[in-house]
Amino acid sequence: MPTRAPGAGKPTISTVAAEAGVSRATVSRAFSQPHRLKPETVERVLAIAQRLGYAVNPMAKALSTGRSGNLAVVVPDIANPFFPPMIRAIEQRADQAGYAVFLAHTNEDPAREDLLLTRLAKQVDGFVIASSRMTESAVRAHAERHPVVLVNRDVARIARVLIDTTAGVTQAVEHLAELGHRQIAYLGGPNRSWSNSQRRRTVKRVGERRGLTVTMLPGRLSSYELGRQAVPDLLATGATAVIAFDDLLAHGILTGLAERDLVVPRDFSVIGCDDVLGAQTYPPLTTVSSRSAEAGTAAIDLLAGRLENDARSSDDRLLLDTSLVVRASTASVPRKRR
Amino acid sequence: MPTRAPGAGKPTISTVAAEAGVSRATVSRAFSQPHRLKPETVERVLAIAQRLGYAVNPMAKALSTGRSGNLAVVVPDIANPFFPPMIRAIEQRADQAGYAVFLAHTNEDPAREDLLLTRLAKQVDGFVIASSRMTESAVRAHAERHPVVLVNRDVARIARVLIDTTAGVTQAVEHLAELGHRQIAYLGGPNRSWSNSQRRRTVKRVGERRGLTVTMLPGRLSSYELGRQAVPDLLATGATAVIAFDDLLAHGILTGLAERDLVVPRDFSVIGCDDVLGAQTYPPLTTVSSRSAEAGTAAIDLLAGRLENDARSSDDRLLLDTSLVVRASTASVPRKRR
DNA sequence: GTGAAAGCGCTAACAC
DNA sequence: GTGTTAGCGCTTTCAC
Questions:
Q1: Collapsing DSSP states into helix, strand and coil, what is residue B127?
Q2: Which residues contact A132 (CB under 8 A, 6 or more apart)?
Q3: CB of residue A63 closer than 7 A to nucleic acid strand D?
Q4: Which of A68, A77, A84 is facing B59, going by the closest CB pair?
Q5: Which domains does chain B carry?
Q6: What is the pLDDT of residues A152-177, one digit of tens each?
Q7: How far is the CA of A47 from the C1' of C13 (A)?
Q8: What is the gyration radius of the CA atoms in chain A, in angstroms?
Q9: How far apart are CA A109 and CA B74, in angstroms?
Q10: Is the pTM value of this prediction over 0.85?
């Protein structure tokens, strides 16, 4: 693409330089290192640039500096209500820090996640990977090549922010125990989910400590429909209460129960997780608080800090605490079990 | 940044060229126009590139061609359940067409929308702007400078895909009329929303045609909480049924009504819009179907087509039809009005 | 404090 | 078919 009409395209650094009677280097400096220039020069150049409608071309700048000013967020499912608040927070914080953000949606597919990561790598300065479904070694491989901050995935020696539901889930189990439930169930979430492992483990541990019988129900994913469909299995366990991986699943359970004319919480107690539905279910769901927006903000802070210090790799591990939010979907164990 | 350690960084086109004993142009062609090369050359170059772990640098390519291979989606509020399915569809379709996507969240703020648009402009080949809150002239200004496809915003001479709720809302009003309601209300949505104007207009027109008394309630935004808070005003109108701008608002109304011991649909009928909640409310909401995912896909098709044909501006105007989905939140008018 | 010049990695006339 | 060459728009030594 040699030669181009002179007065044609957008103004470039050269246009401004010519107009201001200075060199292109000076114009460049006026924008990137004003302090190395005489104040009046800066002022004049900037004024002219303004008048000409000039703006730095981020691509050219990126090619030259090796830094794009872009970040990427990777999520398994943007339609899951857990993520939007986090994405929003990430967008906002990244914006404040001067970054634009790419959104990558993996559709819960590890292979796709891997692909998107490598495809985007050349265009961004760093990644926030939320609830990664990749294997630990795949995560490691990417983190070695590019700055990465994980959310809700605990891989040693990679920066991560974890919403720690241990406390909240512990309270949930104890809440149930105190209400007199002796037999409870846990309905699981996505297979490769770190959060799911953590929650399942906690329910098991605390349940045993309190002498409860706890049944683990597998649950490949998180969705309202899956929760609804799990009800027969749930009832078959003989449990009088359930803790679900998240609110979506819990909500589905609420519906499944209602369809069988079981009244919550009179006949059955259900607890969700993440508090994404607020009091919008019927009855309002007892759940474990989450802090997804905070997690997003923290992730960007970690990432941005790391990019500025040009740090190789950080081993930050930020834990965000949770607690039980009691609403109206839990009550004492029914007199006669169903 | 003159000079750099030779064996240092990632392999570039030159590395491959040297290794293959061809010119850089040939390597470039092997990737972008293989048909202009001898098949065996292509094969050899690609093999070597593969072995060296070479991949085209999108930034460099973009700077040279003037096309980034990136698109941007702009939405007012990613946390509104209407958008995620659309964003997901956009991401997916864009990916198929070879584009990566930036996500911009304007937080319902026209000024921010404008800012993000200009900021991203240099990095993307085109925009999908969903439910723009900017003034028509501002929208025009951007559309003149860059390829833009609008979703749910009807500006002449700018490509747009519109989810046309006229049919659905008409059916909603008639449904209510047939159930015997004589006095209804419409709870509005975001001020600058085209969808809101369209729905309000339709309710008014059809209501009058059927001889109903219809009261228009303003509603600055869309949110569960706002719907809940609107209930007192709603009841004060004397209406026996309401059509809300969207499901979120309708859901809030359901709750507000329940809090006043009014049973839906026995004491009051409510209809939502967009069908984003499925049957997840209590009682399941009668609503107007939406087609946000389809809209997203269509928007990308329009945009991609336009970018390929290098068309200046297209005046495509794609309408997506809707219809009423009757569930359980509507019934005959109560005997004695409250 | 400012300019000259080389170069980031790639593409696209234009020649041969 | 393939190489040569001149950029895309910006940053950054190195001089002056």
A1: strand
A2: A74, A76, A113, A139, A150, A153, A192
A3: yes
A4: A68
A5: 13-55 (1.10.260), 60-163+291-321 (3.40.50.2300), 165-290+324-337 (3.40.50.2300)
A6: 999 999 999 999 999 999 999 999 99
A7: 37
A8: 26
A9: 25
A10: yes
